[in-house]
């Protein structure tokens, strides 16, 4: 979807931005992750499965080289705190 696409084929009634779509998608992933952990799966195993699924989907959509370039940026982003949910503020 692109900026201001609609959901479920609605026309002009409910415009949704890319940011809103990503927030909704994150909600689905968070729920599925929590459900898996609640069912007794180890959170590390769920995280690895989620990463595998995400990378496989990205490779299918954009190709191996584009995904490799994205993956090369991950160490810096992790160190910068882009994926840190709870931060200690002193």
3D architecture notes:
The protein is 63% helix and 4% strand. It is mostly helical. The chain has 2 domains: 1-41; 42-90, no CATH class. The longest helix has 21 residues, at 18-38.
Keyphrases for this structure?
2 domains; 90 residues; globular; mainly alpha; single chain; disordered N terminus; two-stranded antiparallel sheet
Summed up:
This protein has 90 residues and is mainly alpha-helical. Helix content is 63%, strand content 4%.
Strand order of the largest sheet: 1-2
Strand-residue fraction?
under 5%
Number of helices: 4
The mean pLDDT is 88
The description of the largest β-sheet is: 2 strands, antiparallel
Q: Provide the structure class.
A: mainly alpha
Helix content percent band? 55-70%
Number of DSSP strand runs: 2
Task: Give the helices and strands, then pairings.
Blueprint: E1 5-6, E2 15-16, H1 18-38, H2 43-62, H3 64-72, H4 74-80
Antiparallel strand pairs: 1-2
Helix pairs in contact: 2-3
